[in-house]
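Protein: Helix-turn-helix transcriptional regulator
Species: Phocaeicola vulgatus
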Amino acid sequence: MVNFISRKDYKSYPISLDSLMSYLKNAHKFFLNFTLPAIRRKLLDAIDCSDAEDIGFLIIKFYDEYVKEVRIHMEHENKNVFRYVEQLLKGHLCNNYNIGIFASKHNDIDPKLKDLKDIIIRYYPQKDNELLNSVLYDIINCEHDLYFHCLIEEHLFIPEVMDLEERLKKDSEIREIEIEDYEEKQEKLNKAALLSEREKGVVACIAQGMSNKEIAEQLCLSVNTVTTHRRNISMKLGIHSAASITIFAIVNKIVEIPGKS
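Structure follows.
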């Protein structure tokens, strides 16, 4: 963080997204609960805002509207964006939201402070008003801090969240493939379980290239019985050719691959 703000190398160092998010949350609290209220108090002490049509009153009104915008901006991040990222850190992806949606709508919140500073300097000139000079200095510092706060969100926080989303998507795709493989294996096992021991014996003989007559002799059955078994096997497995039955027998270990011990 320090390297980024001081414009030194920061890309060589790993970023803890959890720690970065804690920093941003604390920064929001500092701006909303301390910095911005303190500037308002100083403004009230430094300028005359008793007349609703006077520039002093308009300055306070401008500032209050700005603070309202900042509060909405930061509370949205606190309640929606950070909660979304917390779920990501737990390994939970969201189907209808991603950080790109936030990034596309994210806007800087510091430019209006520059406008306020310019309004005060241009339209509320005061000689020997040290309190006004002090509040102008605070506004400049706040503008600077908010500028870097937005940069941190755009150049550190958002890219890091995007990387996490990509990792979770890849993990999810791998899990889906594993589940599909598992289900396919289970389906094959289930199909094998549908066969009786006698039918498995017939399948083994078919896999060895025997004719119906040879199977009948091997298993001490009539040819008609073998034919009936083959018809039942085809119905249960949904396969009909001898080649397909042979593959099924090998996959389900009813027979071993020739030459393989």
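Remarks: The radius of gyration is 37 Å.
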